[in-house]
Amino acid sequence: MSDSPVAAPTDAEIFEQKAVRLAKRERLIAERTNAAGGAYPVSVPITTTIPELRAEYAHLEAGEETGITVGVAGRIMHARNTGKLCFASLQSGDGSRVQAMVSLAEVGEESLARWKDLVDLGDHVFVSGQVISSRRGELSIMVTDWQIAAKAIQPLPNLHNELSEESRVRARYLDLIAREQARKTVKDRATMMASLRSTFTGQDFLEVETPMLQVMHGGAAARPFVTESNAFDTELYLRIAPELYLKRAVVGGIDRVFEINRNFRNEGADSTHSPEFAMVEAYQAYGDYNSIADLTQALIQNAALAVADSHVVTWADGTEFDLGGDWDRIDMYSSLSEAAGRQITPETPIEELKALAEAEGVAVAHPIHGKYVEELWEHFVKGSLVRPTFVMDFPVDTSPLVRDHRSKAGVVEKWDLYVRGFELATGYSELVDPVIQRERFVEQAKLAARGDDEAMPVDEDFLRALEHGMPPSGGMGMGVDRLMMAITGLGIRETILFPLVK
């Protein structure tokens, strides 16, 4: 047999196949007693699922018969028709399969002819019959009755050829039908989400929901999507982060709160960024950025255990990555100074930072001290991080929602967590003083006036909430899609079930 790839059908061939299948659908309608009911039954008498069948009868020897009749349904993935016996592989949603054997002796001449005439690859069919093991040892149903539950009008892609990444993300339903890894990713993500919630619940956090449509964007440095409400006759923003509402909840007395949410940022899309993405944020009264780092490490390590049964995860390409142990915590300024070979502190003049950036070819869109430091840190240090690492203590002028460091002037108590070379999460000792928060917002407004699209506006309602007293708190935010990337090694478009594509 040749190993060369099978050519994909042309548009003309697909059009022809669709026409043939539509004609078969019309014949199904004509056969039905109540044609108004359409081509397909409302339900079929399933007695067991394919996964249950495989689990219960895995012990059968080749050629063994059980005498037990079952009714199952699945999608036809492979089919072979001979004179008096037809074979079909039925697949359930989880990818497990069972063979259906349609024989002249069991169903009769007319039913066998209808099977050969009407059934195509991709169709959903119901079969009932005895559970047996074929002479080759394959778990099978010896069919006595069958019906088409739903017909595939479009032919399936050629299963001998791997779908391209572009095809996979544009037609994820085909990816899920054809590829085990796609189904596994969906299940792994569900397992991971359940683990996140379990870890939070185990530490007495409450899950809440906050608005996606907001009259004022805030909680992160990002460009928002803008829309309008006809009912309120006002401009609205899709949320870039739930932070400011979750902090209102802490003000109200929900001391440990989290949300798993969808956020929207009107920015670029690449291997680690998507305009629409999932995020988890959490706030802990009387915590700080150290305690929230401990929580974040627990969340990630528990998720790895749930998905991979180990802190050492195996990525899609076979690489092993260790998420276990206690993770390093390094200082941003100190690590930058060491990598750059010169002392850089919060007092370093901006002219000196600018000269270094120009010498290294580092572009800085908004020339303030903190932007230079962060861009230079990414240039010099980011690429050298292998193990999960908390990068601690950021410049004050790029972190308007963070408390000043308790002992270091010019920096705030903020960390970013880097895993696999990308930023996975960020955590703060939260700024809870409304007077300082107002000053920070005003500085952000000045940056916005100078053209910084990511700067935050002055949020008077949030300031009013802080004025009622928010306890000292630690807070964190983590990309859920990126957590999947860290555990599975996949790109962001593979971790999102239906990513936005042009």
TrEMBL record:
Q: Name one Pfam family in it.
A: tRNA-synt_2
Record's subcellular location? Cytoplasm
The Swiss-Prot or TrEMBL record annotates one GO molecular function as:
tRNA binding
Mind telling me which PROSITE patterns this protein's record contains?
A: AA_TRNA_LIGASE_II
Q: Which SUPFAM superfamilies match?
A: Class II aaRS and biotin synthetases, Nucleic acid-binding proteins
Enzyme class comes to ligase
Example of a GO cellular component annotation carried by this entry: cytosol
The protein's UniProt keywords, in alphabetical order, are: Aminoacyl-tRNA synthetase, ATP-binding, Cytoplasm, Ligase, Magnesium, Metal-binding, Nucleotide-binding, Protein biosynthesis
Q: How is the cofactor bound?
A: Binds 3 Mg(2+) ions per subunit.
Q: Per UniProt, where does Mg(2+) 2 bind?
A: E423
InterPro entries in the cross-refs: Aa-tRNA-synt_II (IPR004364), aa-tRNA-synth_II (IPR006195), aa-tRNA-synth_II/BPL/LPL (IPR045864), Lys-tRNA-ligase_II (IPR002313), Lys-tRNA-ligase_II_N (IPR044136), Lys-tRNA-synth_II_C (IPR018149), NA-bd_OB-fold (IPR012340), NA-bd_OB_tRNA (IPR004365)
Cofactor list: Mg(2+)
Query: Has the keyword Thylakoid been applied to this entry?
Result: no
| Domain annotation Aminoacyl-transfer RNA synthetases class-II family profile: ranges | 196-499
Main localization of the protein described in the UniProt heading: cytoplasm
The catalysed reaction is: tRNA(Lys) + L-lysine + ATP = L-lysyl-tRNA(Lys) + AMP + diphosphate
The residues that hold Mg(2+) 1 are D416, E423
EC number(s): the record gives 6.1.1.6
Q: Which family does it belong to?
A: Belongs to the class-II aminoacyl-tRNA synthetase family.
The record's annotation in NCBIfam families points to: lysS_bact, PRK00484.1
The record's note on quaternary structure and interaction partners says: Homodimer.
Quote the HAMAP family the UniProt record gives.
Lys_tRNA_synth_class2
- Protein name (Swiss-Prot/TrEMBL): Lysine--tRNA ligase
Q: Which organism is it from?
A: Mycetocola lacteus
Gene behind the chain: lysS
